[in-house]
Amino acid sequence: MINISVNDVLVRVLTGCVFMLRFAACQSFSESSSTAFDAGIEVAEKSDSTTSSVDDAGLRPCPKTGACTRYVFVTTDRFTGNLGGLSGADKRCNDDAAQSVDELVRRGKYVAWLSNSGVAGSDRISNRHQYIFLNTDKLNVFRNGLGDLDVSHPINLTTGRVALQSQDVWTGTDKNGAVAANTCKGWTSDLQDVQGKVGTTSSGSESNSKWTDFGELACNGMASLYCFEL
């Protein structure tokens, strides 16, 4: 016969209660620590995805120093000199980009290479950018100390990757990137007796400043637009 005193029973009961309380506390701590750890990973992952430098438009990575990569194209459609001003020309560029088969091109924001009495075409784009065609060939657009503007290749590719040869392009911008004398009255006129400065998409020797400063065209004539991504 086993004799168990009341004191023994109480000690065993109390010991069991202490064990259960410790187990519950440890389990609670483990669960809360795991949750905190998981949350820490999630926060770290989100932080990693947002710490990379982004470009001015916030669309894709851009180095903190050096050139950002941007697209440039010439519109397939041609227009008279009445473009609705600079904003109307910019809209035509973005409408054209929206039809591209390239997602990054569609996501970009573009301005037309145009000058009027209030702004020069060269001031509408950043000289920090490295412009490329849709086939990824690089196009160096630069201004030296004298303001000369030149390109390493004619700007003649459309958003459909078609090369336009000997196509007039409205620019209103001379070879120095400054406002030309004729801009179809700020790109609001399509009259025959009013003129606008045009460039050309011609290849060969025309891949110099003639891309922006080739000649004059009556504003009722038809010409394309150069579109540069911001």
Q: How does the SSE layout of this entry go?
A:
Elements: H1 6-50, E1 68-74, H2 85-97, H3 103-107, E2 110-112, E3 129-132, E4 138-139, E5 141-143, E6 149-151, E7 168-170, H4 184-187, E8 195-200, E9 215-218, E10 224-229
Parallel strand pairs: 1-3, 7-10
Antiparallel strand pairs: 1-10, 2-10, 3-4, 5-6, 7-8, 8-9
What does this structure look like?
The protein has four helices and ten strands. Helices cover 29% and strands 18% of the residues. The protein is of the alpha+beta class and 230 residues long. The protein folds into two domains: 51 residues; 162 residues, Roll (Mannose-Binding Protein A, Chain A), CATH 3.10.100.10. About 21% of the residues have low confidence. The strands form two sheets. Strands 1, 2, 3, 4, 7, 8, 9 and 10 form an eight-stranded mixed β-sheet that branches. A two-stranded antiparallel sheet has the order 5-6. β5 and β6 form a beta hairpin.
Low-confidence blocks of residues: 17-58, 142-148
**Could you tell me how far the N terminus lies from the C terminus, measured between alpha carbons in angstroms?**
95 Å
Number of discrete domains: 2
Oligomer: single chain
Report the mean per-residue pLDDT as an integer: 73
> Tell me, what's the shape?
globular
Tally of individual helices = 4
Q: And the CATH topology of the largest domain?
A: Mannose-Binding Protein A, Chain A
Order of helices and strands: HEHHEEEEEEHEEE
**Derived structural class:** alpha+beta
Proper CATH architecture of the largest domain: Roll
Strand content: 15-25%
Sheet with the most strands, sense and barrel status:
8 strands, mixed
Helix content: 25-40%
The named CATH superfamily of the largest domain: Mannose-Binding Protein A, subunit A
Q: What is the radius of gyration computed over CA atoms, rounded to a whole number of angstroms?
A: 33 Å
CATH class descriptor of the largest domain = Alpha Beta
Total beta-strand segments:
10
